[in-house]
Amino acid sequence: MNKLLLVVQKLDESLLDRTMQALLYDPIYRNLQSPIQGKEDMDFVVPRHIPMRFTHVKEDGKTALHVMCAPDPSQPFNLEQIAQYALIFGWPGLENTWQGIAFDFAYCMHWQTLFGFTLYWALCATSTAKPAVVRRLALVMAQLRMYWEVVVSYNAAFLDQPMVAQYRSHLNLMQVHMPDKMAQNFSDDDVLRVLLHNQIPLDWVDHAYMYSVVYLEQQFHSPTMSMDIFHKIDDERLQRLSHYSTPPL
Questions:
Q1: Distances (CA, A) of 44 to 5, 132, 149, 167
Q2: What is the pTM (predicted TM-score) of this model?
Q3: CA-CA distance, 148 to 203, in Å (whole number)?
Q4: Confidence of residue 219 (pLDDT cuts 50, 70, 90)
């Protein structure tokens, strides 16, 4: 109950349901064993956060200072490092700039959304056009089995050179380099060609589906693209979802 109260006290009033309102305002809940006794006390609460510097014990038993640095670009799928970095710079309750990643006030992160985030960003070279390219990747991945359909068609057309997914520990990825002026012209077909050329496994794209769902949900509440595009993509997603059902984990 105390954990729920802490979460409720961080939410805007417009987001509270009746249970949350009762927990926050009903006098019978004022005597919970919690240092926070009401909404008026929130000004004195120091938000819990993950420190950027902390000590840890090494294998030899010695204590060392660990400083949280930006993720290593040469290790795009070091999910643990990226997760720590995202939680430090995207605190729950604040504006989350890590679009597509889902985590809660207890700092629990949805692993599939993190995997989708790392997959799409690993495929895009760093530039001011990168967010636009990642957005198109996310919108295509929201359309279940579209990539699967393309791979089936490709393998049928090139029987002697079918697409063989790469599952190596060190992936050989060809990143998208897109001039800023051309980013808005990056299409669904371009996304599918990137995935096909990089031999991205089909189950990886399925596994990253939830990233696209969270991305769309964030776009609905804080849109950075046309709502016409959003509704078109979401309608297509729902049609494919009814046909194929939710992909396996």
A1: 16, 40, 55, 50
A2: 0.69
A3: 9
A4: confident
Alpha helices in 18-172 (DSSP H): 18-25, 79-89, 111-122, 130-141, 146-157
How many angstroms separate the first and last alpha carbons of the chain? 31
Contacts of 182 (CB under 8 A, 6+ apart): 129
| pLDDT tens readout for residues 126-158 | 788 888 888 888 889 899 999 999 999 999 999
State the amino acid at position 117 in one-letter form. F
From the list 121, 129, 124, the residue with the least C-alpha distance to 180 is 129
The model's confidence at residue 163, banded by pLDDT at 50, 70 and 90, is very high
Token pair for 43: 């000004």
Report whether 97 contacts 83 (CB < 8 A).
Answer: no
| Tokens representing residue 59 in the block | 């294998």
Question: Cα separations (Å) of 225 from 19, 113, 115, 183, 190?
Answer: 34, 20, 23, 13, 19
What are the pLDDT digits (tens) for 57-76?
A: 777 877 776 666 777 777 77
**Cα–Cα distance measured from residue 55 to residue 178, given in angstroms and rounded to the nearest whole number:** 41
Which residue in 76, 97, 78 sits closest to 88, CA to CA? 97
